[in-house]
């Protein structure tokens, strides 16, 4: 059985990916919950808002772990392609003269 494991490249080893994701999820959940508890202790007086800050921290931890795990399983890069210049919106300075030349709106009651 040890021979088969050596033949499998790291990018196809699903067990290692699950182990890494579970470890990452537990660590980020705990650390973010502790950060939320500490922040709630410093900033809020009500127990409800303190629990809300803990829940927010836990949600941030799980969300960031989910993002990282999806990157691990998909193997995609974290650098998205830059947007093309043709997709960019027009400059604000180009749009302002058009607005100044427009006739006043008829919706205003005098």
From TrEMBL:
GO terms for cellular component: MICOS complex. The keyword Transmembrane helix applies. It is a single-pass membrane protein. InterPro entries: Mic10. The keyword Transmembrane applies. It is found in: Mitochondrion inner membrane. Coiled coil: none annotated. Its main location: mitochondrion. Keywords: Membrane, Mitochondrion, Mitochondrion inner membrane, Transmembrane, Transmembrane helix. Pfam families: DUF543. Component of the MICOS complex, a large protein complex of the mitochondrial inner membrane that plays crucial roles in the maintenance of crista junctions, inner membrane architecture, and formation of contact sites to the outer membrane. Belongs to the MICOS complex subunit Mic10 family. This is MICOS complex subunit Mic10. It comes from Rubroshorea leprosula.
